[in-house]
Write a structure and sequence with these properties.
This protein is an alpha/beta fold. Among the domains are: 217 residues, Rossmann fold, CATH 3.40.50.300; 195 residues, Rossmann fold, CATH 3.40.50. Helices cover 58% and strands 10% of the residues. The protein has 41 helices and 26 strands. The strands form seven sheets. Strands 3, 5, 8, 9, 10, 11 and 12 form a seven-stranded mixed beta sheet that branches. Strands 18-21-22-15-23-24 form a six-stranded mixed beta sheet, sandwiched between helices. The chain is elongated and about 130 Å long. It is found in: Apical cell membrane; Basolateral cell membrane. GO terms for molecular function: ABC-type glutathione S-conjugate transporter activity; ABC-type xenobiotic transporter activity; ATP binding; ATP hydrolysis activity. It is a multi-pass membrane protein. Pfam families: ABC_membrane (PF00664), ABC_tran (PF00005).
Amino acid sequence: MGPVSPEEKPNPLQDANFCSRLFSWWLNPLFKIGYERKLKQDDLYSVLPEDRSQHLGEELQGYWDREVLRAKKDAREPSLMKAIVKCYWKFYFALGLLMFLEEGTKVVLPIFWGKIISYVENYDPANSAALHEAYGYAAGLSACVLVWAVLHHLHFCHIQRVGMRLRVAVCHMIYRKSLRLSSSAMGKTTTGQIVNLLSNDVNRFDQVMIFLHYLWVGPLQAIAVTALLWMEIGISCLAGMAVLVILLLLQSCIGNSFSSLRSKTAALTDDRIRTMSEVITGIRTIKMNAWEKSFIDLITRLRREEISKILKSSYLRGLNLASFFAVSKIMIFVTFITNELLDNLITASQVFVVVMLFEALRFSSTLYFPMAVEKVSEAVISIRRIKNFLLLDEITQLNPQLQSDGERIVDMKDFTASWDEESETPALQGLSFTVRPGELLAVVGPVGAGKSSLLSAVLGELPPSQGKVSVHGRIAYVSQQPWVFPGTVRSNILFGKKYEKEQYEKVIKACALEEDLQNLNGDLTVIGDGGIPLSSGQKARVSLARAVYQDADIYLLDDPLSTVDAGVSRHLFEQCIRQALKEKITILVTHQLQHLKDASQILILKDGKMVKRGTYNEFLKSKVDILSLFEKGNEQSEPSPVPGAPTAISESLVQSLQSPRPSLKDAAPEDQETENIQITLPLEDHLEGKVSFKTYENYFTAGAGWPVIIFLILINITAQVLAPGLTQSAVKWLTVSTILFGITRSLLLFYILVNSSRTLHDKMLESILRAPVLFFNRNPIGRILNRFSKDIGQMDDLLPLTFLDFIQTFLLVVGVVGVMVAAIPWTAIPVIPLGIIFFVLRWYFLRTSREVKRLECTTQSLVFSHLASSLRGLWTIRAYKDGQGFQKLFDTYQDLHSEAWFLLLTTSRWLAVYLDVICAIFVTAVAFGALILVETLTPGQVGLVLSLTFTLTGMFQWCVRQSAEVENMMISVERGIEYTDLEKEAPWELEYRPPPSWPHGGEINFNSMNFRYSLDGPLVLKNVGMSIDPRQKRGIVGRTGSGKSSLIAALFRLSEPEGGIWIDGILTNNIGLHDLRKKISVAPQEPVLFTGTMRNNLDPFNEHTDEELWNALEEVQLKDTIEHLPGKMNTELAESGLNLSVGQRQLVCLARALLKKNQILIMDKATSNVDPRTDELIQEKIHEKFAQCTVLTITHRLSNVIDCQWISVLDSGIYREGERLHNLLQKKNSLFYKMVQQLGEAEVAALTERPDISHSDCVVMNVSSGQPSAFTIFESAL
């Protein structure tokens, strides 16, 4: 399916002629489609070659790389600003000159006005020369207005494109960097921060580019106007200009406050989005523990702090905007008062020239100049944040070199390394080993021994502090927590390689995926974000199949067997690791000790040091007691951590296999036949049609009640009625009151709208956390984060500003039209049709533009989803050297977004050009009309109408454009409101509350229960009927994917089960979800930790004492590890706990479950990534501590259920058998017996000969050889 664009639609702009480009005619076909139906992704035109993400990103990256080198040479910090300036200055400077011309025409206009008015003043019917001259001036006036319109749009369109290019280029660089972050850098940043950089920080570039030139054009224009005024009225003009200078100085000071507020806001937004992304990833854990309320409180608190900063900067903005409306009035007022005091005479034409010149300054100096100051100060902060991110440490690229004789080898010599420079204890210490083709190195050790770190060292993710590792050959890596990306099962396995049927089918068979694919409807099943609908065992096997299909030379397998049942584990080991990979170098990290006898070498790790290395026979001869080597090791060894706080980090290894390699391929991946990786990220649905009145109403009333809104409307009307009345004697009071009203309405509007944004965010948050788990399975994380970052960002920043701008211009237009029609009634004749044309145009334009805006919002989610998915699979992508493929995909998604964005810019230009051209025609009509009707008019009337016409044309089209802009931005509000009204799960609390002591016994009855994850989904549990006695210890086993975890989902009502589940006589469907979930403790298979201290993770709501916490840690064998951390319990965990090994994370989650002391405890494969010895100790503790509780143990490790009083076997969602362990083992045809037989003779004997429910450690002799089995050796040695 590839990236989402079926066939490229060529961009008509490429072949458009000059006129078509100038007046945007090339867009007409698109408007026609948009008028007829809802636009689709395929209707958008493809991006122009010069706007493509890859081209732009590589260009800017080149400048940045050179800047970094130069800075290194000069021993200074590199400046991203310099790189950006060098890359874009030429084109941008040319646009600045265009803009200078455009602003120049605005200054010339009043001169023509003055000449026309002076002709009316000195009107002499006999003087035909003067009449012809006046017609000349009128023609010049019209030409000026037209030239201004055309220049303005040329420059504006290109300047917005520069902003877009810079944004796209920086996004490309941010993603490229995130694929190269070293492990230590990963501890310093978070997904939330990167998403915020990609959504809110880079948006500053789009805005700053528009206004930047005004920093020099504004002052220059002010100087030119001063000169012209001096020529007209002499020295009194300086008084008016003094007002302007004071204002500009004030606004520059305000600019500094903007930058400090922006950097504080950005940091708070990072935190909020990071927490949000952790909540979305860990939603199952949050729901099972009923923690929604506390996370709502946490995020609402962060949001409150963020809003207080946003409100401050909004008030500053409001003052800026209010000053724009008041300043020209003050300047004119001060100038004429001064003129009066100096006793200078002044004519009507001079009055109007002065007023018009001040009007010309109004936009560039009092609106755009302060905007430029604000945007530049915010952009500087964003550039600094992005630069800091781009300067984080990168991983040193390990390019495996082949030796001249083409030998493949992994050789580690005296290797020492640590994840964190500050940590006293290295993660690995003095390791040495060599693995050659055809060898399998098994790495074992307790939790946190450094097994995964050993693999990272081979991958080059863990740089050595001494010693070295040489890797010759191409690497394939299977991570401990399997990673799949959104796409089909097949594309996950192919991972960019060509599909070859025969090899593909072999791989599927070796990885035991045949049966699963039949159940899933084949390998074209689409996997969603986070691997839904695959079970964890299926994900692990897809991930293994991906590695095998790559046909690499070196295989690093990080505990791939821990998530599957004994039978599948045996199949994978024999068919895949021993058979398919027999000629490869394989390093396998494992806790499955029964496979050790087949390894070429065994390496035992503990605390990062090698305890012993040798072959299985050497271990037998030396009578090494392996379990004793693990003794202190009550820590677990687990998935590869990414550092943050120093910790005992565990490692995982890979497998090596036997026999010389037949055909040597070159190690360079380029010689392989590759295709693009195919990722399927569906576009989300979006509403269509106009933004409803209901949306506006919800938006406003979210921020304030109706009384406040009515008060706001009244203030606006008052301010407007006062504004045009400048001719009366009460000029002073009017000026003062206008300013006061203007400021009040600005601040009040900002207060209401920013509050609306806060309220909407809180409602969205609550609604999201009340949504069923199904919602999160269907919506990729990027889609949800997009609404919480970009859409909320628009509501915080741009929408209130645009709204205020629209309201002010709209009221001004109404006022101006009123004054004009009152002064000269015939002006109503052109004004009315003008208004009608404008509104028809706006309506036609919005039909298309709205849909483009909606597509722009949805295509942005793809960029975020892709980023989140890549960060999760970072090590895998790097191990397969496939950064380029993912970068290409990212660029494709960026281009999809740019298609919509580019059309958003050009369609609004289309509207603006037509509006301005119509205005130019209107000005022409009025100017010539005044000359034709000259005999009936006084100079004052002509002056008034001409000056108002000039104001009107600028304002009228700006008003229509801003109203369209508001409608487009309201799409963000609409998308937010859509999330406030999601389908909810059952209520958290109902009127009927179970008694506090419930459940007292812990009896659970499943009454012919059916379960599916979605209403239209297949049944995953069919007609399950079983009962669990109070305080019973029940083991639940079954093949991987048989529905064991779904049983837990049904118990917790993560989706509503059909049929009934009774706990101690209460039907679970009759009580609130929180009442149910708080009473059951669960230790999940996939551990979820949150950023924060270890203590917050164990006890998020401070309900327990320190002593209780330490006891819980001791019970899960983690106390020792935590005591050795620098901050003990207060050690900060990295994002998702990446500075702990996977095993350690599982233990933390287990400790969390034990602390809840509930009557029912569920262990869902909670120790799958823990070594057998630690596991056994934990099982003993649980049996001892929870003797009076009901314990359900779901596991693939049959040794875990040996002590259970009763065993239930599930198969394909059906409850097959349930009896005492002893009875099941007697029945040769029972499913359980068959599962046990998969373990191998010695292990079977160990299980079957155990006295019924007891703990005697008996050594079982292997009958055939008279030697102890591997199991026994390990038991004793560990």
